[in-house]
Amino acid sequence: MVIDRPLVLALGKGRMFEETTRLFDTIGFDMEPVRRAKKERKMLADEGGGRLRVLLAKDADVPVYVEHGVADMGIVGRDVLWESGADVLVPLLLGALLPSSRCRMVLAGPARWRGRNLCAEPSLTIATKYPNIARHYVWERGLSADVLGLSGNIELACTSGLADLIVDIVQTGTTLRENNLVELETILQVEAALIVNRAAHKLRPHDIQPIVQALETLLDAAMQPNS
């Protein structure tokens, strides 16, 4: 079956965008038109060679576009992927090539919670932008907790008394410290992932596999002790 259109890559417009486009420059694509399109607030752009069409989406929407076949593949953080529950293939984790994607998802709260047996608490309230991941964590740990979904400023939930604890993404921990909060447990190590639509993986192997192999080669080099 011949598909007469460029391969479609979904990219988030967030913190990984610049690093990801430079990575695709490295493996032979001309991503300057894509960077220009983002500055011009366009949502779709072809790379300079015409082999790749890039869909510029909100980070949280990337797995949705890939799962439903609007995009053949995408780059997304594992936090976003796990929260979405999207049914996609994950051939590669790219943290070694996209260091800005590396962070951790943690349970955090006021220092008084440090060292306490959370399983013994009769009722907890946990606020987060990642309610699906948080609910899975609560179930896995056997906690008695309600999960509140919020859209931002998660630390405020603790400082205002809305929640006992929070689940959030941390890179340096500065924001937690500024709000007198501490990390209690690490839930997930986060990094970028290459995701592929299941049907596209079967129908377009000659387009997708060279990209996977090129990224694998860079990953192998990055993992070498002296790299």
Parts with pLDDT < 50 across at least 5 consecutive residues: none
How many domains?
Answer: 2
Strand order of the largest sheet: 2-3-1-4-11-5
Q: Structural class given helices, strands, pairing?
A: alpha/beta
What does the main sheet amount to? 6 strands, mixed
EC number: 2.4.2.17
Domain ATP phosphoribosyltransferase catalytic: 58-216
Keywords: Amino-acid biosynthesis, ATP-binding, Cytoplasm, Glycosyltransferase, Histidine biosynthesis, Nucleotide-binding, Transferase
Catalytic activity: 1-(5-phospho-beta-D-ribosyl)-ATP + diphosphate = 5-phospho-alpha-D-ribose 1-diphosphate + ATP
What does this structure look like?
It is found in: Cytoplasm. Belongs to the ATP phosphoribosyltransferase family. Short subfamily. Keywords: Amino-acid biosynthesis, ATP-binding, Cytoplasm, Glycosyltransferase, Histidine biosynthesis, Nucleotide-binding, Transferase. Residues 58-216 form the ATP phosphoribosyltransferase catalytic domain. InterPro entries: ATP_PRibTrfase_cat, ATP_PRibTrfase_CS, ATP_PRibTrfase_HisG, ATP_PRibTrfase_HisG_short. It is built from 9 helices and 11 strands. The strands form 2 sheets. Strands 2-3-1-4-11-5 form a 6-stranded mixed β-sheet. The termini are far apart. It has helices at residues 17-26, 32-39, 62-67, 78-84, 131-141, 155-159, 174-178, 198-203, 205-223; strands spanning 7-12, 44-46, 52-57, 73-77, 89-93, 103-110, 124-128, 145-149, 165-170, 181-190, 192-196. It folds into 2 domains: 7-100 and 191-223, D-Maltodextrin-Binding Protein, domain 2 (3-Layer(aba) Sandwich); 103-190, D-Maltodextrin-Binding Protein, domain 2. With 227 residues, it is an alpha/beta fold. Strand 7 (124-128), helix 5 (131-141) and strand 8 form a beta-alpha-beta unit.
